[in-house]
Amino acid sequence: MHFAFLGWSITNMISLAIYIVSAFAFYKLAKLRCLNNAWLAFIPFFSLYIIGYIGDTLKYNTAPFNRYLSDIPLAYALPLLSIFSSVAYAVPLLGGLVSSLLNLLVYLGQVLVYLFVFQQYAPQNKFLFTILSLIPVVGPLLILYATRGYRC
Length: 152
Fold this sequence. Notes:
Number of strands: 0
Order of helices and strands: HHHHHHH
Radius of gyration: 17 Å
Number of domains: 1
Shape: globular
Number of helices: 7
Largest sheet: none
Distance between the termini: 48 Å
Mean pLDDT: 89
Structural class: mainly alpha
Low-confidence stretches: none
Helix content: over 70%
């Protein structure tokens, strides 16, 4: 029983550390982009808003995605998809499947924002950094690495 509690505690501490690094990376990026309320990156639900807002400011710099994403406000789409995912999970029968698909869309949106960020701040390594950002803690660390020469 003590080992289970110890394992649970270690897992939660690692998750908290990953969340803090991620929040700090997006906070710094929001400050670089001169966004209002950059501190929202530290609040769990509103961090999706900040991530989407950063994506909205950068999506016009990536030519292949301009025509597809110009009408979609990522700042609102990511949090709303997250809410719909939570609500869909409560629906019996197909709710779990719908919730999983909506969570996948949120995750793909976040990966797309990583691509936009690396297109702007590390264009020579944008695809490598985007693929590496699929690993949970690596993406925020790469954002901090790519923006290290920029001042807020």
